[in-house]
Amino acid sequence: MITLFHSPRSRSSRFIFLLEEVGAPYEIHYVGIRRGDGSGARDAANPHPHGKVPLILDDGQMVFESAAIALYLTDKFPKNGIGPAIGDATRGAYLTWLAYYAGVMEPAWMMKFAQVDLPGGAPGWPPAEEAMAHVTRTLEAGPYLLGDRFSAADILFGTTFALFMGGPMMPETPLLRAYVDRITGRPAYARAAARDEG
Ligand SMILES: N[C@@H](CCC(=O)N[C@@H](CS)C(=O)NCC(=O)O)C(=O)O
Questions:
Q1: What is the rounded distance in angstroms from the CA atom of residue 40 to the CA atom of residue 18?
Q2: Pocket around ligand 1: residues whose beta carbon is below 6 Å from it?
Q3: 91-186 — its CATH code?
Q4: Are 54 and 12 in contact (CB under 8 A)?
Q5: CA atoms of 18 and 157, how far apart (whole Å)
Q6: Domain spans, the chain
Q7: pLDDT < 70 stretches in the chain
Q8: Of all protein residues, whose CA lies closest to atom 2 belonging to ligand 1?
Q9: Closest Cα to residue 198, out of 13, 19, 37?
Q10: Residue 120 has what pLDDT?
Q11: Can you name the CATH fold of 2-82+188-195?
């Protein structure tokens, strides 16, 4: 049984979606977190070293960081095929997109959000616009990041786009709108949304 430490309307919401997609037995442990508007507080019941969500516990193993949880769950529950296994022709692309989400998209977006320009302008990731151009080119060949195959990487990207598209962080385009609708139109997304608030 997987235990998901979750707080509504946060980065852990997409892991209810993923757990539904992979068909894992799971329970949700609802915890409080500090919110961007200054509300909320760290929850002593949450074992995360920084008080954040998502985090999962599985038979004594603790996993946190979105990309790590996605890989852990799709490796452990391969039945529905949303995480290419070792040896699969799309495994390399799958690992790349998971790492790209954590190591490129999130920092690029956060720097854009905070309007930070580093001296020299060359941290370990490109500007958000350049990263989005790469994502867009990939989806043009799509319909998913891995081509024909829906994967947990689409859950990370698609649910994030669903939140920010159309706002100052991300202009809406027909291609991205169609992508978001494809991801959030999945039955597992609706089942997860029904459990988000507890
Ligand atoms: N890099 C982490 C980020 C996790 C994260 O920042 N989660 C936010 C919720 S969206 C949180 O728990 N914030 C509470 C806090 O920072 O104390 C991941 O992708 O899992």
A1: 25
A2: 10-11, 33-34, 42, 51-54, 65-66
A3: 1.20.1050.10
A4: yes
A5: 12
A6: 2-82+188-195, 91-186
A7: none
A8: 65
A9: 13
A10: 74
A11: Glutaredoxin (3.40.30)
